Amino acid sequence: EVQKLNQQLEEKNGEIQQMINQPPYEKEREILRLQKTLAEREKAQATSDVLCRSLTDETHQLQRKLASTAEMCQHLAKCLEEKQRKEKGNSDDQIPTERSNQLLDNETSLQALICNLQEENRMLKQKVAHV
Fold first, then answer.
1. Which UniProt keywords apply (predicted)?
2. CB 131 within 8 A of CB 55
């Protein structure tokens, strides 16, 4: 193990000597290459930071929208329940077919809206996890 480490140390020393013995223009070229690489990495990091901030802002905006939509759904569901109670209370007769179909359509649209909101919520959670 010690011999292996000594050999690696000698190789690194050889590389250092090789760099020291290089002509000045080679050193300058290497410095320029490293500076260019650094500049590219800094630019990529800046871009990444901007995208992260943008995604964070969008996530907050979508969360607020989801919360307001969920609140609206709850309100609509309460209104539908109240309407159904009133209709049942007003008449002991069977609800007309047209009225029944309308209620089913409202209920179906509410369920579809809830499904859409759940899907949007799932996607938002994925985005938040990704960010």
1. Coiled coil
2. yes
Check residue 93 and report its DSSP letter. Answer: S
Range of the domain at 62: 1-81
pLDDT tens digits, residue range 74-125?
A: 888 899 898 888 888 765 454 456 666 666 676 777 777 788 888 887 888 7
pLDDT, residue 46, reads: 95
Name the helix (H) or strand (E) containing 109.
helix 97-130
Give the Cα separation of 70 and 60 in Å (integer): 15
What is the residue whose two structure tokens read 């990444």?
48
Measured in residues, the chain has a length of 131
Whether residue 11 lies inside any domain: the answer is yes
Domain assignment present for 92: no
Domain count, the chain: 1
As a whole number of angstroms, the distance between CA 124 and CA 101 comes to 34
Angle between the N-to-C axes of helices 97-130 and 24-90, in degrees from 0 to 180, rounded to the nearest 10: 160
Angstrom distance (rounded) from CA 103 to CA 99: 6
